[in-house]
Amino acid sequence: MTFRAQHLLGIEHLHPVEITTVLDLADKYAEENKRGIRHKDVLAGLTQINMFFENSTRTQASFELAGMRLGADVMNMSMQASSIKKGETLIDTALTLNAMHPDLLVVRHPHSGAVDLLAQKVNGAVLNAGDGRHEHPTQALLDALTIRRAKGRLHRLSIAICGDIAHSRVARSNIMLLGKMENRIRLIAPPTLMPAGMADLGCEVFDNMEEGLRDVDVVMMLRLQKERMDGGFIPSEREYFHRYGLDAAKLAFAKPDAIVMHPGPMNRGVEIDGNIADDINRSVIQTQVEMGVAVRMAAMDLLAQNLRARRAEREITA
After folding, report:
1. What is the DSSP string of 30-91?
2. Which sequence positions are flagged as catalytic?
3. What is the pLDDT of residue 229?
4. pTM exceeds cut of 0.90
């Protein structure tokens, strides 16, 4: 298998072969998780620190569970009570953490680029659990694995990403990953939530759900990022659902076997109708959660292998 990265900061710098390597290993872990097989030796002796400067349920829990299943010593830092709140800079926090010699550092931060800055200051492997509007690489990887398992492939599919494109790091990472894997990407959003220049990325841009969803294989809905909005981007949630919320009438324009996705947390009745979200024949939202643990296990496994290899090389040359 080929995976050369020292950190997992984003999808942008990953080669398609590296993406496939992560997904293949994650697929194996997904099957073994179902059978209750544990791999406590994979990260045995390594320390994993989770630093979440933004609130999270799914991502933090799945990273914690992934590390525990692989045998890491897992520590969750409460950033709400950290020295950051007392005025310590992010760099000073990184240097302090580095003195503790963590092997794997999982970071979510509200500012784009903060995770990359941390990666420059620590000796261990850093995994980006979401930074501002920039990227959320493990979400894109788990979405890719969910699609591949549902459709049997991850290329030459027509995939619609719908909703708050402007503020979504999930959309950004998915656009890059799905584009690298040769898929047709359609973006659907009101003009106020569609960044300029998206067509230049090879995406088809729509402001009408019926046109954008026509004959697609995958419908990926996005959460309205209200916490990142500083103005009137939508007239009202009721109007937004009427025009852009996924319901049975809009989904009928997609292929009959199209799957429905959502990264969570969902705003039912705003981005998606509850009956569609719970439809076991169309919705793979719960599968996304399940695949999240497997993908994060695979990512940490591969990064740990590279970390150990670098340390062994240093010992030889020392």
Report:
1. HHHHHTT---TTSSTT-EEEEEESS--SHHHHHHHHHHHHTT-EEEEE-GGGSGGGGT--HH
2. 58-59, 86, 108, 136
3. 46
4. yes
